[in-house]
Records
---
Amino acid sequence: MSTLVIDTIQGKTTAGSVNVRGEGSNNTNLQQGLVKHWCNLQADGFSINDSFNNASCTDYAQCNYAYTYTNAFANNDYCPAGFVRDGGDVNYVKVMQSIDGSNFSTTTITVRPAASNASSFTTAFDPAQCCLSITGDLA
Amino acid sequence: MTIETPEFQGTHLWERLHWAKEKLEPIQSDYRVVWEDPNEPDEPAKVTIPDPNWLACAMQGGILPPVQSYWELKKDEAQPDFKKHTRGYLLHNTQPVDKMTEEEAIEYLIMKDIPEHVWKDYDKSNRKRLVICKKQNLPGHRTWRNSWKINQELVA
């Protein structure tokens, strides 16, 4: 077994592109697989527990929050993924959704947690935590 | 112990953030920026908080780009034919800003993350639309969150 001790991995052909051998003959591009932004927002008390590449959060209203980035994305075609942690009624499915397209820019995203079960849908709650991570291309 | 910031001009901002995450302790601020958008008078007041890791970068100095870099990128994005940023170098190659006090960092954040029409000449409007306060000045619970407004008597 060998240990690689280095500070930087850089592509030889293209500096910002490194392929990692995946399953079989597949290659996985290292840069494309990295999460470029993440933030664990304590929504019920409105504070930030931990993050990376996050500059601020804004509490727009109940159940309506924005995250802004330090290093902007190259475009707004990035891919956010969210997780809502809440100690409330376990019979609800809880998700994060966008407010509208205009608040999905290269520097910020506004989200709204929502809960639904077989008979109802609500956004009238502040969950304990709203966790967001984003993959995509940086500016 | 004082941590020296490496010379970061020309280093990708993303790499600087990695350095900061490893070397700097996050700083939780008690400051809150409360603001109202004059274009949405019926909406409740918004509250912006600085990220603790971002604030550590701001107060360390030599990491963050000048706020004008973000303004330029916003101008580019506002163009109708915008597809993707081609001037990312504004974040990476401009001279990073010196270390800031916590108060200066909050001012920088306002100009970076709050719409310009809110903070520009905010103190000259008839109705106060932006206030920097401490966390304890906000309501202690969120029961009536959608009714929050800036108290005009307090800020006058």
---
Amino acid sequence: MSFREAVESGKFLITCEVGPPKGVNIGPVLEEAELLKDRVDGINVTDLQAACMRVSSVATCALLKQRGVEAILQMVCRDRNRISLQSEILGAYLLGIRNVLCLTGDHVVLGDHVEAKPVFDLDSVSLLQAARGLAEGKDLAGNELEEAPKDLFLGAIVTPGAEPVEPQIYKLHNKVKAGARFIQTQAVYDAGAFARFMERVSDLEVPVLAGIVLLKSAGMARYMNANVAGVSVPDPLIKEMAEAGQKDKAAKADGKKADYRVKTSIEIAARLMRDLKPLCRGVHIMPLGWGHHVAAVLEAAGL
Amino acid sequence: MIASEPKPVEEILGYLEGERAIFVVACDGCATGCEVADPEHTAALVKELEANGKSVTGVARVEMSCNGGLVALMLSQHLEVVQQAEGILVLACGVGIQTVARAVERPVHPATNSTYLGGFQGLWRSEPRCAECGNCMLDYTAGICPYTACSKSLLYGSCGGPKNGMCEVDPEVPCGWVQIYERLAALGRAERLKEMPPLRNFRSMLPAGERRRASLWALELTEPEAAEEEG
């Protein structure tokens, strides 16, 4: 089933993400996708995530497509102007890619080429407009296309925990107006806060997939709280992870198996997913290197 | 000097839709030098506004509208009229418009497009800053320039990066779009963010040939050549 069919079927959606390698060692990404592909409705491929130079998202999506994976191409506006972005969408379409997630992208100073020119000719909203225009047979300059990529299926993101959240909500409205047919969110850790956000966007008729980032440690949670915009891990979860970390330390000292953190992380994610399920149309899991634990998370969540 | 051009009257009238009592601020600095804000052109615009059903409740001139102190002094002399105005129309460069918008809690509209910072090498530009983009968006953005106040120069609202209202690029710099949202909300105009203006046109940033020829660097470059030719 294509991702569009899954969305239109009304089922509870599960998507996941993989990140292309820095260098041409593509094997691990393909293996990760192979592990996930039968458990999820689509796999996002990040586009130069965190402004770090890597293999392109389009090339990785094409390789996944060849292996029967329903790929969701992420595109950011940091590195290409409107000419190049439109061209890339057409090229991806020819390679069989239909799902495109449009994002603005992190600024170059957050990445590993801090001296690069930040482009941002378009942003998430205008990229959606451009892509929808292409699907309807016209480029941004109004020129007619020879055959339109009419089956493009477009998505966007939102940060429900942004402070203030209103600018995000206004922009989300414009994203939907500009052609977004599905929404994936930044990491959510508080189902109650997420419920209040969903209430505020209840006038938008678009499926929302709540973002799940697997917690690897208490330190990671604290780091995200301090540094990642719109992400807030509640203290009780940090405490749970810290206690698991202590147990792992003790187990290691005794020469025993130290898997308490992994178990706790899976448990937290599964609990969150069960709490989020009644609130939205699906979940989008960002395992950040823990792709091999995703199946266990889904199982624990009963998905 | 920041060179500016008048916006088409239709565009200005579009900004003023729903507002009748309009207070006009005109700058005696660069915008007057460009014959955009001088008394004659200001009077002509006022006449156009009145012909289109607007009531111009006052015209104030300020020596240099980029100077916050001078703007505050001028506004204090017209306090009552300014407070009663439904909108304030500013004939100045983008810096002047932003300076006025900072000083009043009324909707501020640009009457000009700033196009070009001509021939002033060594000039220290503080803030607010104008990108001389040639198509002033300050009406849409509550008098805060999205191109200079946002690190990504975004036109369609905040990215996902701001944390506690501060920019992802520098946590000591406020997010331009959070500021825009907050000022729009204070003016009761936040719903405007559901509008999507046309894409930015980068062509309007290219200095026209005549401007290039008129700027000081062009004089520096062409004068010696001319002198050489004359032998």
